Batch of 3 targets.
Target 1
Amino acid sequence: MNKFAEEIIDFVLAEMPLGVIVFNDKMGITYLNRNADKILARYELPVEVPTICKRIFDSINNKNVREQFPGDIVLYQKISGSQNSWIIRMHIGKGPVPLVYVFMSEEKVSNKLNVNKVRMQYKLTRRETDMVRRVLDGLTNSEIAEDCGISEQTVKDHLSNIYLKCGVRSRFELICGLINSPEPESPPLQQ
């Protein structure tokens, strides 16, 4: 593979919204992307993940992996300390070196709300909408600033504008108002 293709793959893995962790047969972490690093810094990996990985590697060594694990393994569960449920998909690598790929994604509140309709209803900018999405997902101002590559003061300025536009005074009122309000209606299509 050429250097350009490697850079593209590195970029995609680092920036993708999923947490990606790759375990080797010694149960060591061979790779984790930026999102997985953040997840592990914030939450403890569920005990089921290393337990299942060990069972997978045992079945690889016993040469019965396809009988034991005919497809991907999918866990749907809460992670201690997280307010949301998580989808954890485990995939068995097919290369010469035994690896297990773990893909983690959080079922976020912002995924359940049509944030684009909220943007249109309250006339939010795209950046403000991005802030709302992160607030709904429980990120702090400093986490939002780090994610967006902006200062914490800029996050506060955006949130002040959002509060004004949405007619609320606090983060709590914003979240409650957006979650509990009826979905804004779409304008009728022009013929």
Target 2
Amino acid sequence: MRATLYDASGEDREVELRQGISSKLGKRQLLWVDLDARDGEEIAKVGAMLELPDDAVRHLADAPDTARLLRFPGHVLLRLIAVQPSGRKGQGSGVRLETAPIDLVAAPNMIVTVHDRDVEAFDEFESEIRGDSHLGRLDAAGFMGALVDSVLSVCLHVVEEIDRRIDVLDEMALRGAQPDAFLSEVVMLRRRIALLRRTLAPHRAAFAPLARPDLDIPELGQAWAGLVERLERAMDATESARDLLLGSFDVYMARAAHRTNNVMKVLTVLNAVLLPAIVLAGVMGMNFKIGFFEEPANFWFAVAGMLALAATIVGVSRWRGWI
């Protein structure tokens, strides 16, 4: 657990939680309490010190399975599912993706976050702060919007990485990569895009109330309505990545069809070149008593005729641009 006090009138600093600390926060102060484990006893202890509603404390003990917004008297609980790199290598190159359930409780001049594992968005948010941040001037709803925006930014970074890998796929398709290597990469990227789509879609219902006037709680302030637009941008980027992936697969299939057409063209020309010789040899092998067959020197005339017909077919094919 970590508690950070953002003080616009003083210095930002880490503090120790104690009973009644929430009632002593000034208008230019904002307290962020971050718990990196869902320990029921620890959550209950923090909830008692911060005077959180009992219903909210009970929800914090259970990891969310989907995005949702819950409202309590003077408090708001926003449940998110973040998507981030896990740091573990997957099939092929690159790292796997993982989901990180996050709960954010907004209370007057205070934000409480609970999650099961490290959240890359929170780490990036803290890395952007240098010295006194003046974040204490924000209300709880504004600070919550900043944290959620960081979560969406990480999703956009994931989509950008997928776009870069799709560019590599295009090069593989044009070079005629091995089918197994190409298709395994396509399947891996398709799974990542599907995970992003399944995770982001439920956030629409959770973020929609943030843009409605009925969520305006005077003690918390008005949430940033731009979060809905940021979510739609992340979803559009994900759909765009999906279309690019389908385009790469189409390029690969077109390349494979082109190679197949070249092989069929060679085989067709070869059949056309050999067919007259086969027909002529069949005629010459018929059991008829003709004087032409009894003269040994005529064999070479037959061979010459075969070669002449083959040369004629090759010449016509080159003239017509077939080969």
Target 3
Amino acid sequence: MIREGIKNDAEQIAKLKIRNYQKTYNNIFSNQFLNEMNIEDEKQKYINGLKNRKVLVYCDEDNVLGYIYYGKRKNHKEVLKHYDGEIYAIYVDVDFQKKGIGKKLIIAALNDLINDYNKIILWCMKDNFDSLQFYEKRNFTKLENIATEIGGKELFETGLGFDFSKSKNYKLTRYVSFKEKNQVIAVYSNFDLIFLKNETAIWFKKLVNNEITEDIPISFYKYLIKKEVAEIA
């Protein structure tokens, strides 16, 4: 289950982050930096961050198995300035990786981010090859590398971008049904009813039939997502 992160998640997320860092960045960050990470500091960082970013967590009952942070662009804003939204971090418990949790979290975040942003960016360590491959499979595009310093060590981060206007991985949600009569399409979704006609009806049928959709404006996808008719796949 995916839900919004709350203050009471702090300890689980702190432990998950430290375990993940120590495995993922074992040969990237300095040993000193990794060894100095501690639960109390990470708990406080998480709690402080709830004020200025959105947090989603993936849970199995009461156990947090993954999380994602995102919101308004804040990192390395001196480059690639046309990217206005950002995914700050996404991590999955080391014992539950490669089970689709990361994919579910990033799709949930994208379906929220599209309401406020046109292009989003995330930063990944250049030498974190598994994560780079994961993002590219989710239709993120490598942009450029920049130097950064972490724990007293100079490293490189790769920026990856996601342009909602160029992505065509949209699908109808499982809650949707529709009927067409006299060139008007009535769409039922989550106890809501909307009517489409003229161009919007044509665009909707293209989406349903998996036809070429280059002419469909991003504003229409945003409308469908807001109405819970469509979602990013």
